[in-house]
Amino acid sequence: MYHMNYYISNLHILHKNVCKEGKNFDQRPFETMDEMMNFIQQQWNEYITDNDDVYILGDFCWKENEQSIAFVSSLKGKKHLIIGNHDRLKNEAYRSLFVEITPYKEVHEIIDGLKYSFILQHYPIMFWNHQHHLNNDLPINIHLYGHVHNSLEETIYQSFIQTLNQTYHYHCIAINVGCMMPYIHYQPKTARELLNDHQV
Fold first, then answer.
1. DSSP string for 179-192
2. pTM for the complete prediction?
3. How far apart are CA 13 and CA 33, in angstroms?
4. pLDDT, average across residues 132-151
5. Cβ-Cβ contacts under 8 Å for 177 (sequence gap 6 or more)
């Protein structure tokens, strides 16, 4: 049956400091955590089907309790969790909501006849498998990550990637799939959407 792959990170469900109930360090546009969760649930379930695979690149839920279990259960799709620094994973009922839990994953897709490999890790990494595209027979390997939100660290990391490309001719691509990024807007995105947003 037809399905799609989707990607998102850093949802921080039940972490009040990502909305106006707390410090709102991401400057998210939500007055309360309930408002944010309702918005994410609506965005997610209007877009995702139960046949789809959703790769969540870490920091999904701040707490693993009945509320987070009910919330994650309400989201459509087969959920793959790439472990982030805030994913405690001590609650067995919570763990059971995911088809896999892993610190690293490579997902392969064919888009418009081109082979892509998406290197999934919560943390932005400097060098990854087949990062520089010297052999046209290899897939185009793109690093997807979260962790740094829309912070100074994101700016520093992307400056490093730009230096690799402009100075050392690596031709590599790394995309932050944090939910707060304007091209994500709290909704899992397909690889094609990410490539289009970054003019790849």
1. TTSTTTTTS-B-HH
2. 0.96
3. 8
4. 83
5. 7, 8, 9, 57, 144, 145, 146, 184, 189, 194
